[in-house]
Design brief:
With about 130 residues, the chain is mainly α. The protein has one domain: Arc Repressor Mutant, subunit A. It contains 4 helices and 4 strands. The protein has helices at about 25-35, 40-45, 50-65, 85-115; strands spanning about 15, 20, 70, 80-85. The protein has a two-stranded antiparallel sheet with strand order 1-2. Strand 1 (about 15) and strand 2 form a beta hairpin. Helix 1 (about 25-35) packs across helix 2, helix 1 packs across helix 4 and helix 2 crosses helix 3. The longest helix has 30 residues, at about 85-115. The mean pLDDT is about 90.
């Protein structure tokens, strides 16, 4: 699954503890690392700086009981990164909750959309 560019729908942000949150950005970064094998490539795919991608990975690794991303330093063959078993579990649980939230809110979301002013052009959600 690639990062979502949806402008309509549910964006799930979990507050796991004070100061510890997991939302679509971190989940998409984990997904990108899983798919590319690289923190830098996952960050580029999201138009995120390498530094910011590393900061988010460090935050995630510190937040959980064990690292969610294992990174290898560069060298002759270059570095790389992969999700640990815990990282795979964290991503899978987040994606499952995201899908359940979307299914659960589908009817209410359709009702809210039907109540929008008809002259409104589709585009990025204001204040999202």
């Amino acid at each position: 699954m690639k990062p979502s560019n949806r402008t309509v729908g549910i964006r799930l942000r979990l507050v796991l503890a004070p100061g510890i949150a997991l939302g679509p950005g971190k989940a998409d970064l984990l997904q990108g690392i899983k798919e590319t094998g690289s923190i830098a490539a996952a960050g580029r795919r999201m138009r995120m700086s390498y530094k910011r991608a590393w900061q988010l990975v460090e935050m995630l690794n510190e937040a959980f009981s064990a690292p969610v991303v294992a990174a290898a330093k560069g060298g002759a063959k270059g570095g790389g990164a992969e999700l640990t078993g815990l990282g795979e579990e964290v991503l899978a649980l987040y994606r499952r909750m995201e899908a359940r939230a979307a299914r659960g809110a589908q009817s209410d979301l359709a009702t809210l959309q039907a109540r929008l002013a008809r002259s409104r052009e589709p585009g990025p959600a204001a204040g999202a």
